[in-house]
Amino acid sequence: MRHLMTPLDLSVEELDKLMKKAEEIKADPDKYAHACDGKILAALFYEPSTRTRLSFEAAMLHLGGKTIGFADATSSSAAKGESVADTIRVVSCFADIAAMRHFKEGAPMVAAQFSGIPVINAGDGGHQHPTQTLTDLMTIKSSKGKLSSMKIGMCGDLKFGRTVHSLIRALLRYEDISFVFISPDELKLPDYMIEELNARSDVSYKEVTRLEDALPELDVLYMTRVQKERFFNEEDYVRLKDYYILDSRKMELASSDMIVLHPLPRVNEISVEVDKDPRAKYFEQVLNGMYIRMALILMLLGIEV
Ligand code: CP
Question: Which residue puts its alpha carbon closest to atom 4 of ligand 1?
Fold first, then answer.
């Protein structure tokens, strides 16, 4: 039995296989419509979500399976003090696979240790979000035709942004990747991520503050939201929340084939006017998220079609 806690739990070959499978499902969804007949996915969401929870549920439904779960810990026995370990033991009696989002870093890992079914980390605090990374990789690959030899800009909340941390780890496994990290001082990448980057003599990166300075040299711009829920005081959040706003005028500084990704939800960091720019790929990214989760469910359940 396998779990997915971080993108590093999958080899590069497995990542490639998953992306290929997701593209196959996207091209011919009917072929997979009964692949998970009789199977149940439990969506255990202790923290709010729209895309991840609904795309996991839609993924299982499109595979012919069913879903159970909760979207809010207050409606589960977590509100009465039940531990994650006990909850997953119980859920293992009812479901074949579980996706768990939790506000505490490491909670899905604890669940995996006590689980009788595969557990997928659907985002744990400011730590990791591996299925968002699968979505991001699939979208980069389908837009750029490759995952190597690229300069990736990551902008916004790089400190608490679990999608950023997961994506960096995954991209470090491909050749000739360089990064430009764009953030205010208060939201720079955490030291443990910088240490991982410094350990790689073949990877170059720089940290800058102005988005305008980075835009002309990027192949991919990964925008992120300044996350209100990760701040300890409202004053800091208000000061930083609109630090970056990508608009059509700034997009003129970027190359004609740079793509813009965002894990979403967005608040103000991308103006809606950018949505109609063909370089904006963030809604395509959402759709890809469902197909790659379908491929992942099949892989973890060991189902071949
Ligand atoms: N990208 C992402 O994790 O979105 P949700 O918080 O809506 O699931």
Answer: 51
**Bridge partners for 260 per DSSP:** 221, 280
Pocket of ligand 1 (CB under 6 A): 49-52, 123, 132, 263-265
Q: Which of 44, 45, 46, 52 maximizes ligand 1 atoms within 8 Å of its Cβ, making it the mutation to test the pocket?
A: 52
Query: Which pLDDT tens digit goes with each residue over 8-51?
Result: 999 999 999 999 999 999 999 999 999 999 999 999 999 999 99
Q: Which domains does the chain have, with CATH numbers?
A: 7-128+286-301 (3.40.50.1370), 130-283 (3.40.50.1370)
Could you tell me the pTM of the whole model? 0.95
Question: Is residue 67 classed as helix, strand or coil in its secondary structure?
Answer: strand
- The Cα diameter of the chain in Å comes to 55
Cα–chain center distance at 207: 22
Mutating to test ligand 1, I would choose from 51, 53, 72, 290 the residue with most ligand atoms within 8 A of its C-beta, which is: 51
pLDDT number for residue 197 = 97
Q: What is the pLDDT of residues 188-202, one digit of tens each?
A: 999 999 999 999 999
